Automatic annotation (TrEMBL):
GO terms for cellular component: plasma membrane. This is ABC transporter permease. GO terms for biological process: transmembrane transport. PANTHER family: D,D-DIPEPTIDE TRANSPORT SYSTEM PERMEASE PROTEIN DDPC-RELATED (PTHR43386:SF1), OLIGOPEPTIDE TRANSPORT SYSTEM PERMEASE PROTEIN APPC (PTHR43386). It comes from Grylomicrobium aquisgranensis. It is found in: Cell membrane. It comes from the Bacteria. CDD domains: TM_PBP2. The keyword Transferase does not apply. SUPFAM superfamilies: MetI-like. The lineage of its organism: Bacteria, Bacillati, Bacillota, Erysipelotrichia, Erysipelotrichales.
Length: 282
């Protein structure tokens, strides 16, 4: 019996133990973030009398300097980081995929114009672009999503363009052109499905970087603004030596959550790369 591509990918993915464990961990984190209103024991923005309290039965991860429950803020902060990571990745991959398809398929002036814009954006230091954009525009979750989406697309565009340059010489593309199929059909129904695997793999890396970027901007005060919880601005309140040495419950939970999200996302990406490799040894 012929095995479908999806079943083949899943079978090979399961061989990657780190990828499977990471996928399970990410699934649990995503579920807890979605259920944050149900799981949170306190309002994440509510100020309680217990300031900088160590973990107790009432406050599982203690409270911050303003008396806010760290556990509740961790749940809501994780939700923000995942939202920014997923949506900015979707925006960046959508823009990059469309521009890469157009550049690779049409070539000529279209290719030159898109690639010069891509080179111009990629020539600037990445972190500088993010910081400048964060200063210019009003801080907030949706603005961060737009900023990261508009900065992260060049890598996707170059990847897709390279794939299209190879695919447009294939017989199935020439057959569609000879049959008089519309360009839009050839691009999005014939070529794009064959680029899906590298786009998906590359997207996991973009998502990991986006989570780090959001945390960095929020840590520097140019991202998610208090009182809204964010993993980055939770770390922002734990910069003093006193907090670092005697109040680890203020910085360990958000710091570990960022590390876990980024590492697990990268492991899943590695597993997908191996599982989708057409030359993988069975």
């Amino acid at each position: 019996m012929h095995e479908s591509f999806a079943h083949s990918v899943w079978r090979r993915f399961k061989r990657h133990k780190a990828g499977v464990v990471s996928l399970i961990i990410l699934g649990i984190i995503i579920l807890t973030a979605i259920l944050a209103p149900v799981l949170a024991r306190h309002d994440p923005n509510a100020i309680n009398p217990a300031f900088s309290s160590a973990p107790t039965g009432e406050y599982w991860l203690g409270t911050d300097q303003m008396g806010r429950d760290v556990f509740s803020r961790l749940l809501y902060g994780t939700r923000v980081s995942l939202t920014v990571g997923v949506l900015s990745t979707l925006l960046a991959t959508s823009i990059g995929t469309v521009l890469g398809l157009l550049a690779g398929y049409f070539g000529g002036a279209v290719d030159m114009m898109i690639m010069r814009i891509t080179d111009m954006i990629m020539s600037f230091p990445y972190i500088m672009l993010i910081l400048v954009a964060g200063v210019i525009f009003k801080p907030g979750m949706w603005m961060i999503i737009i900023i990261l989406g508009l900065i992260d697309w060049p890598g996707v565009a170059r990847l897709v363009r390279g794939e299209v340059l190879s695919l447009r010489e294939k017989d199935f593309v020439h057959s569609s052109e000879i049959a008089g199929m519309p360009k839009s059909y050839i691009l999005f129904s014939e070529i794009l499905p064959n680029c899906f695997a590298p786009i998906l793999i590359f997207g996991t890396g973009v998502m990991a970087i986006s989570i780090l970027d959001e945390a960095s901007l929020s840590f520097l005060g140019m991202g998610i603004q208090p009182p809204q919880a964010s993993l980055g601005n939770m770390l922002n309140g734990a910069q003093s030596i006193t907090v670092l040495t005697s109040m680890p419950w203020l910085w360990l939970p958000p710091g570990l959550m960022i590390v876990i999200l980024v590492v697990c996302t990268n492991f899943v990406g590695d597993a997908l790369r191996d599982a989708m490799d057409p030359n993988a040894v069975e």
